[in-house]
Specification:
Strand order of the largest sheet: 1-2-3-4-5-6-7-8
CATH architecture: Alpha-Beta Barrel
CATH class: Alpha Beta
Number of domains: 1
Number of strands: 8
Number of helices: 11
Strand content: 5-15%
Shape: globular
Order of helices and strands: EHEHEHEHHEHEHEHHEHH
CATH topology: TIM Barrel
Helix content: 25-40%
């Protein structure tokens, strides 16, 4: 079982000309010959890529409050419809795009929980410059703890030139302590504080790490060692952040890790399956 736990479902054209794009060679999934983005094409493009790379399932991510009015931002409901013929290949997630409306976010999460393939809520502090432990995010954390959904949180230095304090990995402590029943996935590895995150793995049983946004051969040595350990076997998951970071490059780079079969299977999908699968 191989699961890519972060595949962007919104249009990659939104990032063209920004510092988010990895390079001009990134595959623009869903963009047709006419230069327009089509969510249905995105699903087909990703399926083709997943089949070629031996990836069994992808977690598609869109905006929490997307209403489907724009093709660039398909709603969770639209993604559920488009992926229904391939329900075993796609799970769904959403990032908090409007953190300053916490009550609406809480209500939206409760409503989306009715969709059985909705498995994850994502908090990306750099987007709106609202810190990991800001009170605006606490209703989101409370709602997810209530219904049993994990939350992934971006931590570490962001790529774009925005204030980084909002993603300081140290802010995770408050969330992990205040919500001990909430399963938290620290995404993007907290660079340059990877060793701190590994320490947190030992301290907090409800913390997981995602290697999203980093190729395996570029990860800090502390993370590479952790993936090979008994702790890493149960608490670290693989992700690409495709197409901002190529799914193919991310998948191929895993082969540079010295993993035994047990840890390799856990890292590539076993741990994610146990963490995200809805009962």
């Amino acid at each position: 079982m191989v699961i890519d736990t972060w595949v962007n479902a919104h249009s990659p054209l939104l990032w063209r000309g920004t510092t988010f794009l990895e390079s001009a060679d990134v595959a623009l999934s869903g963009v047709g010959p006419d230069g327009r983005y089509d969510p249905a094409r995105m699903v087909t493009d990703n399926l083709t890529l997943m089949d070629r790379l031996g990836i069994d399932r992808a977690v598609l991510m869109t905006a929490l409050r997307a209403d489907g009015a724009s093709a660039d931002h398909p709603s969770v409901e639209q993604l559920a419809m488009l992926t229904a013929p391939h329900a075993d290949r796609f799970w769904l997630s959403a990032f908090v795009d409007q953190p300053r409306d916490p009550v609406a976010n809480l209500e939206r999460i409760r409503a989306l929980h009715a969709e059985p393939r909705f498995v994850l809520v994502q908090v990306i502090p750099l987007m709106q410059q609202v810190a990991v432990d800001d009170r605006l995010h606490y209703p989101v954390y409370a709602a997810c703890a209530e219904v049993g959904l994990p939350v992934s949180i971006n931590v570490g230095q962001p790529g774009p030139p925005v204030r980084s304090y909002c993603q300081d990995p140290r802010l995770l402590e408050n969330v992990l302590i205040d919500f001990p029943r909430l399963r938290v996935i620290a995404c993007h590895l907290g660079h340059p504080d990877e060793r701190l995150l590994v320490t947190y793995l030992h301290r907090f049983a409800n913390l997981y790490l995602s290697t999203s946004g980093w190729l395996a051969d570029a990860m800090d040595e502390a993370i590479r060692v952790a993936v090979q350990s008994d702790l890493g076997r149960d608490r670290i998951v693989w992700a690409s952040d495709h197409p901002l970071h190529s799914m193919e490059r991310a998948r191929r780079a895993v082969d540079t890790l010295a993993l035994d079969d047990t840890n390799r299977n856990a890292y590539l999908g076993g741990t994610a399956d146990a963490l995200l699968r809805r009962a």
